[in-house]
Specification:
With 97 residues, the chain is mostly helical. The chain contains 3 helices and no strands.
């Protein structure tokens, strides 16, 4: 079946391992994000243009172009789109208190 080729999983396994480490210590990751945001806000206040979102602008890496044919759309593309939407929603609701 087209699209069912085996792929090298080394990159995704490294990402999963990094995610597992981050999830094992959420308080440290929350402090890290708060420090990052403070640095960005300070840079912006000093007149340096900096994005305040930790997410890159645009569609996430691995996404299909909007005009891609529906036949190449796979389950992982739906999963990527959904997790990206959840991440953006979490940033909108970001609470600094």
């Amino acid at each position: 079946m087209p699209g069912d080729d085996q792929l090298d999983a080394a990159g995704i396994l490294r990402r999963i391992a990094a995610l597992a480490l981050a999830l094992d210590d959420l308080p440290a990751q929350a402090r890290r994000l708060a420090r990052w945001r403070l640095r960005r806000m300070a840079a912006r206040a000093a007149g340096k243009a900096r994005a305040l979102s930790p997410l890159r602008p645009g569609i996430p890496s691995g996404s299909l172009p909007r005009r891609a044919p529906k036949k190449v759309l796979r389950e992982e593309h739906h999963l990527l789109s959904e997790t990206h939407a959840l991440a953006r929603d979490a940033l909108v609701r970001f609470d600094t208190s």
